[in-house]
Amino acid sequence: MPTRHFFILASIALAASCDGGTPPGDDGGSDAAVTLTYSPAGCGYTMTPPATRGYTDLALDDGSTPSGGITPARVRVGLGGGNDSSNVAAYANPRTTAAFTWETPTSSHAAKVKIGTSSTALTDVHTGYSWTTPLPTIGLHSANPKYMHEVHVCGLTAGTTYYYQVGGGATGTETWSATQSFTTVPATGKLMVGVLGDARDTVSTWQLVGERMRDAGVSAQLIGGDIVDIGTLEDLWTQWLDAIWKDPSDSSKFLTLGQQLIVPIAGNHENEAAQFYGNWAIPGDGAYAEQYASFDIGNTHFVMLDDQPVALNFTDIASAELTWLDADLNRANANRANVPFIVAISHRGLYSTSNHSTDGDVLIARGALAPIYDKYGVDLVINGHDHEYERSKPLKAGTPPSGDPVVGTGTTYVICAGAGADPYAVGTAASAFREKNVPFGTSTSYIGTYTILTLDAKTLTLDAYGLKASGTDDVIDTVTLTH
């Protein structure tokens, strides 16, 4: 596909042009950006989209009616909240909070959610804010900006199914989406979380993974980056989000977008683009909002980290990320009696034997992150970037930490990058740290891979699946961790 390959080359060139400190995505419109602070009712936190995103026409809901009664599209359920301490009320909490994001084809300041525990009684109304995600000033981009809306809702009950509509407008002339539903994360019991990554080449495979997440009934989907090929191309976001919004077999029903909590973190193909951040609700506030986040689900503390600034030496952002990571893991490690496991999700495969195993940026990320994971005894790290499935033996960083690891005890590293990306060859040379790897692609019966974590009391089990077009997926690996 020559066009796609051209996009990839342009993306690499864009990333390379920012060597030394200014990430892609900081190029567009910050001088003209409008500052807005959103304080969702009852949430105990505020949100101020960073000026570096370049969002324009930022406005709180003003009760206006969208021109022509525009119906919202591609509604998603994300997560708001702070990311400073798991011991404060404003911390990101998927049991009691949700953030609803959607788009409209023309601009408006209507941003409301009607929600309730019955589809016929959506009596609780919350307001939010809207903005325009502009076109970037450099690199490839789509023809039109995107008109976005977001509302955060707090005070929900854990393990409860809620029905909702998004939209708004002046009284008597409101425009509302179709009714969708989602279930907040339960506070107790056995839970399942889907982890996937690298969808960017084949939308139909991405859609099949979405169907598997729906059928498994996961409490959340966590995505390790590279959802689309070029993060600045808003048309790709529209295509990929469409594929998991409506049920492909019945367009009157929904698949997972807007039905399940989805929290992604950026990969290298997102290019730190405003289009990525504009399309998702990820916990966090401040200058580098949505580039790192953490939250608790069941027995596990999840950390989501954008490793692009670390790997490419965006000095200020990398320093902020690593400082936050150290403090967050320190708190999580001290809370093991209540939440025994720690799982980190980022994009680059820190310990890989596939295509990117010796890339300079991967080794830089390894050298920076692995020692922090060792310091706090992180149980499991799940990455993407190399399009394969691979699991390490328990590891600790070596000397130097960017070099070969010490095998025997420590963190288990998993690469699961098969939600649509073209397959890479798995490593075949002997490796002291690799426990298992499984390819997908034309030489196998698998068209991709994904993982499901089962969280139960003092046990965390990872099941990796080889995705088949027929729907009869195989378990290709299982690892169980205990505390």
Tell me about this structure.
The chain has 483 residues and is of the alpha+beta class. The chain has seven helices and 27 strands. It has helices at 2-16, 203-216, 234-243, 274-279, 308-311, 315-334, 360-375, and strands at 56-60, 73-78, 98-104, 112-116, 124-127, 129-133, 146-153, 161-168, 175-176, 180-183, 191-196, 220-223, 246-247, 250-254, 261-264, 292-297, 300-305, 341-345, 380-383, 389-392, 395-396, 406-407, 412-416, 434-438, 448-456, 459-467, 474-482. The protein has a seven-stranded mixed sheet with strand order 16-17-18-19-23-20-24, covered by helices on one side. The protein has a six-stranded mixed sheet with strand order 15-12-11-25-26-27, with helices on one face. Helix 6 packs parallel to helix 7. The protein is globular, with a radius of gyration of 21 Å. It starts with a helix and ends with a strand.
Short description:
The chain has seven helices and 27 strands. With 483 residues, the protein is of the alpha+beta class. The strands form six sheets. It has a seven-stranded mixed beta sheet with strand order 16-17-18-19-23-20-24, covered by helices on one side. A six-stranded mixed beta sheet has the order 15-12-11-25-26-27, covered by helices on one side. A five-stranded antiparallel beta sheet has the order 1-6-7-3-2.
